[in-house]
Amino acid sequence: MLLEPGTVALVTGASKGIGAACAIDLAAEGATVVVNYHGDAQGAAQTVATIEAAGGRAVAIQADVADEAAVKDMFARVRREFGRLDVLVNNAGRSIDKAMPMLSRDDFENVMATNATGVFLCCREAARLMSMAGRGSIVNISSISTHGGPVVSNYAASKAAVTAFSKSIAAELAIRNVRVNVVSPGYVETKLTSVMHPSARRVVLDRTALNRSARPEEIAHVVTFLASDKASFITGAVIDADGGASIGQVISPGRARNEGLDDDRSGPRAARGA
């Protein structure tokens, strides 16, 4: 087990996708998990059922992370029922993908409210609990979208805010032995990304060095590691779990085939006449 006995973890947006995978993985490593959800009660119940079927312990709590009163109530319940909080994973998020000139102020602010303000509210309440215990780990989920791209300007801005905020509070909370780190996923197989047009999917994969998308559990494994004492000397870090998409001019297998770069004779030795 990566996590100490008695560890209590809260994962926001844990009714599906990366959040559900994080909750399940943390439970598999010994944590009691609070499965936060907003509107998908059925999905949250499924996450809890999966954890319990494997012998773990979990409870679902509904709360909109953009609602300050709801967040306070959720953390108060955690304190009443468990008396502690050791791990917080801020995964809840939303996107409204439109070309920037078509975005309304409400579109922009609604995304920021969940993705950025929600992270602040949950981190604030978690820090108060963790500071009393003198230890804790917060893992915030950002995105490769912070590098920019068409029709994701509001989402990218919100996730860039998460990254900057996380680094700042990592410096602030270190004196309390509370670590704060960021995981920045690339393209992940979820219900949301499954509806991508095949041509758009091909473009994304050709920009990814490993030439494939991630499974949600692959992101969850990184989160669980950062949450654990195995990462006890890591804080303020941003881990790009993106298959190499952030490298820059990657030579993916797809691009290599298209440009003949998979032929050994086109490598550096061939260029030197070796």
TrEMBL record:
Checking SUPFAM superfamilies in the record gives: NAD(P)-binding Rossmann-fold domains
The UniProt keywords, alphabetically, are: Oxidoreductase
Query: In the Enzyme Commission scheme, what number(s) does this protein have?
Result: 1.1.1.-
The family database entries (InterPro entries) matched by this protein are listed as: KR_dom, NAD(P)-bd_dom_sf, Sc_DH/Rdtase_CS, SDR, SDR_fam
Q: What is a GO molecular function of this protein?
A: oxidoreductase activity
Fetch the Pfam families from UniProt: adh_short_C2
Identify the stretch(es) annotated as Disordered. Answer: 250-274
> What's the top EC group for this one?
oxidoreductase
Annotated Ketoreductase domain ranges read 7-181
Q: Where is the composition biased (Basic and acidic residues)?
A: 256-267
Classification via PROSITE patterns: ADH_SHORT
Q: Which family does it belong to?
A: Belongs to the short-chain dehydrogenases/reductases (SDR) family.
Name of the featured protein: SDR family NAD(P)-dependent oxidoreductase
